[in-house]
Every structure is written in structure tokens, then in C-alpha cells.
Amino acid sequence: MTDNKQHGTQIFELSKNFVDSLRQIIQEKNEQKAIEVLGKLHAADIAEIYDKLNVKEAKFLYLLLDKEKAADVIAELDEDDSEKFLNALPSEIVAKQFIEEMDSDDAADVLGEMSEKRQEEVLSHIKDHEQAGDIVDLLSYEDDTAGGLMAKELVAINQDLSITKCLIELRNQAETVDEIYYIYVVDNKGVLVGTLSLKKLLLNSEKSLISSLANKEIISVKTDTPEIEVAKIMKKYDLVALPVVDSIGRLKGRITIDDVVDVIQEEAEKDYQMISGITEDVESDDSVYKLSRARFPWLLIGLMGGIIGAWVIGYFEGDIAKYAGIALFLPLIAAMGGNVGVQSSSIIVQGLANHSISKGGVFSRLSKELMVALLNGISLSILIFIYNHFFSDSYALTLSVSLALFSVIIFASLFGTLVPLILDKYKIDPALATGPFITTVNDIMGLLIYLSISRIIFDVLMI
Amino acid sequence: MTDNKQHGTQIFELSKNFVDSLRQIIQEKNEQKAIEVLGKLHAADIAEIYDKLNVKEAKFLYLLLDKEKAADVIAELDEDDSEKFLNALPSEIVAKQFIEEMDSDDAADVLGEMSEKRQEEVLSHIKDHEQAGDIVDLLSYEDDTAGGLMAKELVAINQDLSITKCLIELRNQAETVDEIYYIYVVDNKGVLVGTLSLKKLLLNSEKSLISSLANKEIISVKTDTPEIEVAKIMKKYDLVALPVVDSIGRLKGRITIDDVVDVIQEEAEKDYQMISGITEDVESDDSVYKLSRARFPWLLIGLMGGIIGAWVIGYFEGDIAKYAGIALFLPLIAAMGGNVGVQSSSIIVQGLANHSISKGGVFSRLSKELMVALLNGISLSILIFIYNHFFSDSYALTLSVSLALFSVIIFASLFGTLVPLILDKYKIDPALATGPFITTVNDIMGLLIYLSISRIIFDVLMI
């Protein structure tokens, strides 16, 4: 029964106590104890501790790990962190202790962060020339393409083999591949002609030919397919691994789902940061300077928008001086314009990201948005009309605010819908439309509409 | 060579032409042609076409599919769509044509959308009692827990078997399991004691005992583990399948990465909709009414905020009547408060979602945020000071605007940081802090700060 106790959820939680005791161990340079503590942890957990350590402490720990685990830990670190950490080590140690045990995609990612000179140094210390060659190959692809995501580790079997021979070949190749998922079936020229699941391999007679068992309906991407496309394909077809081929169909590598999960998350975060007005990929743990820099541009655009808003109001200053009540609703109208615009554009941005918006049909999209705007615009205008009817002493103001609110909601909806669609058409990231520029334009247009309407109404009703 | 041509990227793109020709086929009731066209498509592609068809057209097509593909198509549909489609069919057809071929998790999801009476009807038509029992089991778990995500299809092998016997057992069990990924090793009581990869099975001698090969360091979750936790674990440890156990460690099911990718995406979308002021899970293809309803609450809060803002300004109306220039910067100050607040809170929300913020340390988080706010606040205040120095004729106004802007940035930063941290502490979704309420509070506070400061400065400088 004691055996059962250790099962169930056994997930590592990084606690302050744990970090403190680990620090203690490091200070005492107690290697044996450190090895014991780290031995119980998954590489991902050890990577999580990195944030709490300085480079010297991390060095002490990571050099105690066996090479495979050390490599896994480095692969799990943030790019910034692995760069900083590895730069503190001589290139021979980097090669022998970390890179040699890494999967080729992780190794290429890590080396991609280094200067070219440093890359060459590290590569020169890698004993296995094939491995070094694979890494150099991978470094030649753009980061945000299938080539930049893929690893060279995979199992490829010639279609003319029988299962028996395939198993022998598999044993040779499998050593370097952590998870096989699929066997890729190729012809004599290395062209991908099918896939074979391990399940099929296990369930069929040993004499069957690979070519007769292979699934020939391959879903694959080219080395230059953008990573967003890769993520969409793997998500849509529920794939855990996706083969990558060159322009004449030769198998070049494979992408596994764990890397794509990161892409999906990063995409979502990029859109999120855009809509929150943050221009760089930052995390709350980044430096004060980096955090300020990431936020400054939006604030600057907001400030300039505010100044233009001040011009608009200044143009109507005479009206406000005559009837100060107009000023009461300036922020309300400006804010509603911004809000409605963000709502409209974010729905389009998300729809485009999801592929749930079918291309074309801008007109039908706009007329639908118009209906939504009419519905909300009428309700809100009536509400503010009722409020002002009871609490405002000026009928002209009551009318101006309601009319302006209605017009602003219609304008901001259509503008918020149109801009991301246009950006997307011209292959510009539509998420830009949720950012500062459009919100600011809607703020300003709101003021212009409100003040123009109230000038007309006040002039009509007062004269 | 002709054989090669069909390889490379072969991804289905839904075109208007394709839909038109498919419609044509449906109108002609050309079953043979329809089967031919659908035969070339992946289930996920067929599901994508659903949006373009009415229920009657979909019925014609889906009933032509072989059962397994039909089941896959239904599993790929949006929940709303599959609900609507299946409700148009008699329960016997639902059971026999669709549910019987589905994986248990998909079947439970689809049945979960039906009324209890309808569920019973459909279940009564399922021939395999074990399958029906599995579905009923799964229906008992909460949707957003590991139990609600998991499927019953998995390969479980007793630890006391040899590889030879394991292979025989595997052949029996594998039929119902699409992708095996791992073999789960259990003891006589059904308690999960380890995992075994197919790779290990293939690479070891046939006489080895399963228990000696199994990896005993299992990462598993309980049936009641929240799905967000499941997603975090699978992402962190790069898992493609995760076993689910009950409170005494017995293996109950497994969760595969494709379901978790959806959870990750949904989580990101929820936060995105929150920050864009949309209260329901909507897509741009939803009805006008649903879209309006999802946006109305934020607009209403914005409107109420605007009204409170109007009270605040009304309280200072005398000041504005005396010096209308104050009105010029009302929208600027309100907007900057809102912007800064969203920036601060969204960084915290994302950090909490990522686990990149370590628990505790509210004070250090606030002091860092204060530094960022000081940096940006000082720069922006100086910029607006310079602008007003040249373009404004009132020194009091120039001073008021700069001081107010600085104070608002500090206030909104700290408020925007604190609120999500507090919400998180009390187990409330911190993303609420990026939504309408906080933005509105920051808008109003901005006005209050600005008008108070300018009253003091105008009083001091003018008297």
C-alpha cells in the first residue's frame, strides 16, 4: 500500500522555503545535497528556479546535473536567460555540457542568440560533425518559419522495407529521438511519401511492406511556411507532429506540438499586448527601463491625441465659455468613442486570428456591425436622454449629448470594423487597429462630432 | 515522378467556388459526386464548410459519410453548431451514425449539450453498454475539470506482464484508441504505477517485465483538477497526453494535447474579450442580438462612468465657466488615466496567467511599478509642459495639466497593479481588472485629480 501513496497529482510548486534551502545548499557548496535535491526535479522545474538565482548560483547547480538534464534545463529557460547564462561560460563547456545533448531545434535556438563568432567557437567544440551540420542547417532558416521551428531528430524509413527491417532500422534511429509519434516513410530520393504510426507497426504482420501500410494522405508544410500557419494547421488537424519538406518534397525535419503551443501562446500574447498598449514583448519581471520603454509609445500617442483633442475643444472654446455645461460630457463622449471602437476592432481581430471570418464580404460585415451599433447606440442614447431630461436644465444640451452619443457609436463601430479588415487586406497585422492609434482617432472624432452637433443645436435653439 | 507531385503542402482552403459547386451537388442530390468530393477532405475541413450550409444541406452531406468520418466531423464542429445539427435528427440516427463512433470525451461533450431526456434517448440506442457507461461516467464531471476533458480510451497494461504478453494485450486494446502515445502501467487494483512509451516497447527484449521498463515518475492529475491547471502542467512539462486518476490513484482516463490546446486558446480569448470590453464568448459570426448583448454591459458601465465624470466636472463648473481653458485637457487627462491603468493591470494579468509572477511580493511589485510610472510620468509631464509653455496663455493651466498628468499616471499605475493582485488573492479572475470597471474608475479619478489641482493652482495664482 505504501507504494500507492506517491501517486496522484505530484506537481512541483516553487516555494520560498524551497528556494531558501537551495540557496543554503549552494552557499555551503554542498554538491552531494544539491545533486540529491535536483535529482527529484523535472528539468522544467529546475528551469523555473532560475529566476530566483544569480548566474553564479545557477552555474554551480547546472554544472552538477548530468548532461542530458542540463541540456533540457537550458532548453526550458527563457531566451534572455539562457543567453545570459551561457555567455558566462567558456564555449567548450557550452558545447560539451549543454549543446551536445540538446535536440537540434533547441540547440539552434540557443546558438541563434549568440554572436556569429561565439557560434563558430561553440560549434567547433561539438564532436559529432553531423550534429553540428544539422544545427548549422537549422540556423539558416528564419526564426518565424517552419524551418525555424523544426528539429532534425525524426525517424525516416524507406518505403520498400518490410516491418521486420523497419524495426531494425527504427532501433538504430530511435536513440536520438525522444518521442517518435510517427515514422516518416520516404522514397529513395528522400521524398516524403507517407506516415506510419507506431500503433500500425505493432499491430501488423512482420512481413508487410511499409509502403502498403503507410498513410499516404500526408499533411506537411514547407520550410518557409510561416509559424502562424504551422500553428493553425496543427491545431485544426489535431496533430502532435508535422513533417517539414523542401520545395521538391524531400523530408527536412519535423515540428512537434510543444513548440507550437508556445507559438499559439505568443500570438495570443502579442494581440493582448497590442490591445493593452504595450509595444514590446515584456513580462512583469523585466527591467524598469524595458517596461517603461514598452509602454511609452502608446502613452505618447495618447498624449498627442489629447493635444489634438485640446485643439478641437479650443476651436469650440467660445461655445463652452458661453455654456459650460457642454464641458461636462466631453470625457463621456470621447471615452465611448474609444470603447466602441476597441470592441468592434477586437472582434474582427479575433475573428481573423481564428479564421472564423471568411475572407471577402466586407460589406456584409459592415452592415452587421451597423445593426449592432444601431441597437446599442439607440439604447444608450435613450438612457442618457432620460438622465439629462431629469438632471440637466438645458434641453439643447440633452439633445446634443444624445445625438452625439448615437453618432459617435455608429462612427466608431464602422471605423473599428473597417480598419482591421483593411490592414489585413494589405497584409499588415490587423491587431494594430486595437492599439493606440485607432482609439485616439475615435476619441478625437467623438469630440468633433459632439461639439459640432452641440454648436448647431445651440445655435438653432438659442437664436 | 508523378507520384511526387501530390506532396508538399496540401492544405485545404475553403473557397467560394468550392462552396458553390458543393451547393450545386446538394441541390441535384448527386450522392455519388458528393461522396467523391467529401472523400478527399479531412474531417476538420468538412466541419469548416458547416458554416456555409443550412441544417438540411448539412444533413444530406453528413449522412453520406462513413460513420467514423461523420463522428469526427461532429466532434470538430462548434458546440452551438453540433447541438443545432443533432437536434434536427432522430435520436436513433444520432446514436448510430454519430455517437457510437466518437471518442468518449467528444461523445460526452456533444451529449452534455442535450436535454436530459434527449440524452437518455440517445444513450438507449447505443449498442455497446460499456461505451454508454463510459459516456455516462464522463457526463458526471464538471466541464472545466480534468474529468470533463479526459477520454476513457487509453491503453492500460498490468505491470506484471512481459513485453510479449503486453503486445498481445495491446493489440486487443489498441483498436478503440486513435493515438496511443503512452501505455499506462497499472497494478492489480487499477492504480497507475507508471508509463511506458511505445519506443521502449519496441526497443527492448520481449522477455523484459513491464514493471522494470516503466517510467515510475508519473505526472498525473486528479479528476477534479481545474482545466487551467491541466493546461499549465501539460505546457510546462511538454506532455502530449496526461493520465487522470481518482483520489486513491486509480487510472480513470487521459487528456490529450489537442483538447488542451483549445483550453489554452480559450483562456487567452477570455482575457482578450475582457480587455476589449466584451462580456460573453462571441464570434463575429454570431447574431446581431448576441453581439449587441455582449458589448452592452461595458458600454453601460462606460456611460455611467461618464455620468459620474459629468458630476465631477459639474462640481467644478464654476471654475470652467471662469476659465474655459481647463476644459481643453479634460479628455486628455481622463484618457491617460485609463490607458496607464490598462497597461499596468494587463501586465499583471498576463504575468499571473503565465505564472511568471511569483506569488507574494506585492510590495516589490508595487515599488517597481512606481519606478516605471515615475519614469513615464516625468517624461510625459515635461512634454506637455513644454507644449503648453509655447501654446497656452495661462501659466496656471500649464502647471495644472503637468502636475495632474503626473499624479494621474502614478495613481493609475498603482491602482492598475494592485487591483488584479488583490482579485487574484481572493480567487477572483484578475482579468476583471482590465475590464470596464477599473478603466472607468481611472477615468473619473483622473478628472477629480486634474480639477482639484487646477482649482488649487488657479486659486493660488489668481488671488
> Level of helix content of chain A?
55-70%
Radius of gyration of chain A: 30 Å
pLDDT under 50 segments of chain A (min length 5)? Answer: 1-9
Shape of chain A: elongated
Main beta sheet of chain A: 3 strands, mixed
List keywords for this structure.
disordered N terminus; CBS-domain; 3-stranded mixed β-sheet; mainly alpha; about 65% helix; about 475 residues; homodimer; Tetracycline Repressor, domain 2; MgtE N-terminal fold; 24 helices; 6 strands
Plain-language structure description:
By secondary structure, chain A is mainly alpha-helical. Helix content of chain A is 65%, strand content 6%. Chain A has three domains: 11-140, MgtE N-terminal fold, CATH 1.25.60.10; 156-263, CBS-domain (Roll), CATH 3.10.580; 288-462, SLC41 divalent cation transporters, integral membrane domain (Tetracycline Repressor, domain 2, Orthogonal Bundle). In chain A, a hairpin with a 5-residue loop joins strand 2 (182-186) and strand 3 (192-197). The radius of gyration of chain A is 30 Å and the shape is elongated. The model of chain A is unreliable at 1-9 (pLDDT under 50). Chains A and B meet through helix 13, strand 3, helix 14, strand 4 and helix 16 of A and helix 13, strand 3, helix 14, strand 4 and helix 16 of B.
